[in-house]
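Students often ask why we bother predicting the structure of a whole assembly rather than each chain alone. The short answer is interfaces. A chain on its own may look different once its partners are present, and contacts between molecules only exist in the joint model. In this exercise we take two input lines together and write out one structure for the complete complex. Read the inputs first and try to guess which parts will touch.
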Amino acid sequence: MTAAPGYAPRRTLPLRVEIVRQFKRRRTLVMFGLLLALPWILVIAFQFGPQSNNGGQSLRISDLATQSGLNFAAFALSVSANFLLVVAVAMFCGDTVSSEANWSSLRYLLAAPIPRDRLLRQKLIVALGYSAAAVICLPVMALVAGTLAFGWNDIQVPVTGEVIPAVDVLPRFGIVIGYALVSQLVVAALAFLVSTMTDSPLGAVGGAVGLWIVSTILQAVEALGSLREFLPTYWNNAWTDALTPEMDWGGMVKGASVSITYAAILVAIAFRRFRRKDVVS
Amino acid sequence: MKRVAALVAALALIGVTTWLVWPSAPQARGQDQAISVVDGTDDDQRVQLDATFFPPSGGGKAPVVLLAHGFGGSKQSMRQQAAQLAQDGYAVLTWSARGFGRSTGEIALNSPDYEVKDVKQLIDWVAKRPEVQLDATGDPRVGIVGGSYGGAIALMTAAFDQRVDAIVPQITWADLADALFPNNAVQATPAGLGDPETGVFKRMWSGIFFGRGLSLDSFAQQSQSQAQGQGPAQNGQNGQNGQNGQGQNGQNGQNGQGQNAQGQNGQGQGGQSRGQGLGQTAMPMTPEEARCGRFLPAICDIYQTVAKDGRATSEAITLLRASSPVTVANRIKAPTLLLQGQRDSLFPLSHADANAKAIASAGTPVSIAWFDGGHDGGNGEADWLYEQTSAWLARYLKGEGSAQAAPPVSGFTVTRDGGRDPGTRQRIRLHPETSSYPGLGGTDTTTVQLAGPEQNIVNPPGGAPAAISTVPGVGSLLGGQSGGVSIDMPGQSAVFESPPLTAPLQLTGSSTAVVKVTGEGEATLFAKVYDVSDGSQLPVLPAGQVAPFRVTFPDGGGSVEVTVALPAADHNFAAGHRLRLVVATTDMGFATPAEPATYQVALSSPELTVPTVRTLSAPPAGIAWWVWAMPLTAIVIAAILLATGRTSTRATTGRVSGTRATADRTTATRAITNGATAPDPTTTQASDPTSTPVPEPASASALQPASAPEPASVPGRGDDQGVDDDGQAVPLEIKGLTKAYRNGELAVDGLSFRVERGQVLGLLGPNGAGKTTTMRMMMGLIRPDDGEVRIFGERVTPGAPVLSRLGSFVEGPGFLPHLSGRDNIELYWAATGRPPADAHFEEALEIAGLGKALERAVRTYSQGMRQRLAIAQAMLGLPDLLVLDEPTNGLDPPQIREMREVLKRYARDGRTVIVSSHLLAEVEQTCSHVVVMHRGRLVSAGPVSRLLTSAKPANGHGPRLEDVFLDLIGDKS
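Now the answer. The structure tokens for the assembled complex follow.
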């Protein structure tokens, strides 16, 4: 009799349990609340803000936001993808292990025992799930809010002003959200790695966001030339290519490639480190 | 971890620093030369050319490249490009053409009698240089590169001097007469350009062109009048204005004329005019100087005449044609790469077309590229142009080897907008290419149906206000991507529009339209094709180009049918857009009649013929190799990282016997099998110097043989396989357990002991004795440096399944503060994956005794409540081995008493409990056995009763554990 009756490593820490453990956290609820409320706040801002009545001549994405629900959703995504969603993803992935360490509950989970690889795997899946939910819920809520507020019209493409039928754009919108998910993988993996190294949740989230900011700054250094293509943030806005009249996959494919590359290595390092780590928290 | 981070940071720092300070190849240094040449129709004019020779940076003999500057520039404009070419292994000669810079002589517009003769003598000069590779005596391997004015001299020289081996003329003219007097009414002219006799005077460009020649002189005077090195403050700006970035004004301070240095494109207009103003204030000019500047008087006179009338005289045409490559281009034997700007209303694409046709007619290889740039601005694509130039020169000037290495230059390349870069959101350009140049007629034509009634248009008196297509010289300032502002004046233009396109249409070349114009006398008209979207965008005039044409009506008025060649362009009309043909009476850039007039314009044929080039396709951009290679590599690396990072149990076991002397290990073993309680002094002293002297034992100890690590069993009789008498596995067995802190100090040092079933073991020791570290190792949280922990015979590793039989409470409770006590307990059990029925929640929660508080969030609990909840959690599932660290901390006396009973009862059922505590009295009452640790080592182990009896009675009382303990840890005083 090596293990207690009924114990099987494969059954430890079911996803359902981890989801419940994380869901009731205040920061989870606040983050989702914020993401779901943001579109409505924007709607109110557009409705009651001073009208920049320039007769629809301007073709900036912010000016087109009130054209249709789809335009509005694209706008909401564009304003949040670079920071809000990064913070959300960094929070869900960076907080997951470090907060357990912080609460001292990590050692009891490990002594339960949940094998370390399994603990990380389950936590990573749940964290990615929450991240995905965050990335999806914002544009979807924006689509709902935008459609209710501005109607279901065809999308008008920023800069060029072309119009694409709404029905054609809807699947593209799925691509946009999918790409946004993939491009956030780097943040997720980075935050997760930091999470396994520290027992300060703030440190994990801040570390990931900080490195993200450094990458964004490096991206502005033109002297780096094509090296910048390999920065994790470089292809962040490639999803806008999906909303042009002719879809261009080039940027998104490159972005996904870079993102997956970083994510795979970072996650592997996280697992490798955590396996050997002395848990002293 | 910190070391790794530091290492990574250091490596990154080193990398960046290296990259920053990596010695770029030393800047090639030029040698200033004054080269005397003789030219003129009778070879009697001696001119001193100011030149700079750059030897090839690699040394040895190399092909030579003559770099010619644009109009208004000087050799200084070419310095940067020259240095770059020299670094690429060419000898380079730059010079200021006659009449420019510090060269003497007058501007003769690249006349065969003047400038061409000069350049031939420059070729003679370079042939004598030892650094220059020769094809034959006096025949150097030579290429000529230049833009605008410099491009024309490249073409002219190649026509007149067969020693030239390759030329790369950029944004230059084929026929100067046509450039200044274009007429796009299609006639059968051999060159494909219009007839300048009836051409429309390109007033603004001509003015700028000639004005630049005039202003040169004023600068020459200005610099003479000023002390050296006191150039105006805006010197630095002129070079920047040239979008090619090839204008280099580094030395302008010493050379007043250098202020005119402009980009090769001649776009330095802004800085130019400012500089001119300064120049004029510096020194009054003589009337002749003011009139003609540094122009040859003959040219000056002709210009004055034609500019006044706006009509080309045959004299003027003869003179301009003499300076036009198209007339002599069929003599060119040097392979020619023509780089023409799409944004060029001075020398439009049709000029490159004419040159290409003329040169190709002699069988000479010609490649042509339409890039995003030209005299009207655009991007300029300096880097791409350099690449193309470099490839061309490598192919035709350098040896076979480098020709292979250089990328081939296609017959025809066009720069197209490639949308925005996803990363930087900046414009990117594509370069589709095809192997042969199809001409302005394209490989195919698409017919677009236009519609519109006959319309009356007026020529306003005085020709004002005029429509705006391109503003010469400032196009780069105003121009957006769409071609800048284009404004048509109401009433002056007839409009014919197509229905929305059903498919995108890529125009490449020159469209033609046939219109019928009715009026009297003569009409000067401008045709253009707009790209009109129905959206909110303004109509776009591709490249800002218009096609001027002049029609002469039959006497007494009537109508004339004209076929108009619309401006050559490369433009994509998106689906849904319309094509709009506009015929206007005015254009700001051209001279138009001052007489008011009215014309009727109608479509002769509703068809607009749009040329397309089917073969023009972007080089298969495909997906960069790294796009798929990188993630695959990363996944492989990740797999390797994971595979090699597996926790290996073998390695650790090996270290137990391998790394440390076995004898040393036994010193820590305290065998108390025969009731011995104290360690042996001799072996203790033989151990680590860090160990403290152990007090003299009260009774003799029976030593175990010093052969193998032997756990102190409590009260173990046999141990061997970790199996007790009943054949059941020993609940806990620790052998030679060692763990060092990061600083190297040993937290646990060779600890060995054993716990039997049914025991309540007290783990005693002062702070820092290593109790908690030992417990963490029992839980698999910390990996021992040496030795091992076995629970029920199973070795403890992180996540070992046997840990499921261990309940633990170590170093305080660990709960999720946002969940209630019950949720915490239930979710914890759920996390173990074991059946809820095995949990025995009620029993455990009874021990916790939290009552209703169980439903509150844990964050509201007191320390004692959390403590009890944590103990309850440890007891979930009634584990066979219960490890509790300071369980009575924070409990009140009744709870302590209750806890004591709970633990005793727990062990009575055949389970085992290990308790660490500071409260010796508590241990005395609760535990059946004790293990005493001090500084990571085992000091004593055995039943509490034995420990007490072995001690000397003190003060007449019975022995107390406290005394024994203090005795053992040597801290009696």
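Check your guess against this: The first strand of chain B starts at residue 31 and ends at 39.
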